[in-house]
Predict the 3D structure of the following.
Amino acid sequence: MESSDHPATPVVTRAEESDRQLLESILAEVFLADHAPYIPEPLDRDSVAAYSRDLVSRCWQRMALARVDDQTVGMAYVEGDKVEALNIAAGWKRRGVGAALLRWAEGNITASGHRVALVDTQSANAPARAFYETMGYHVIRHWPLTAFTAVPIPMVTMSKSLSGANAPV
């Protein structure tokens, strides 16, 4: 890791099949660290790992990894017009990783013909909401997520116009 005075630039590349275990690990660990505090029920680590494994097995072709030097520091997953996942490893927040991954995601959304990008996050996740707002997103919908827990998780959908977005990286 470089000093915070001169942080290295994250490099985002499309995931390869050989990256599957890395993707699973990032998805599960970041979810447990960053999202679990906003979920009203305790989470089972094994269930989160199984969900991550299943998701990666089906969707790794639409995922990307962010690396700084030889260290993997984050991942993103895009489905259609939606950023389904944007996860940054501990110690790498506020260092340009999220912005680099989001630019990759938005470029791919634009390349697939969409002019608006969507992302969902927990209503109570103030750091995530602030990041997306800084990146030009705004809340367009509040809704309860009922698929994973008995107690609904309050969610928001955020949106950004991509009319000036770049091509995918």
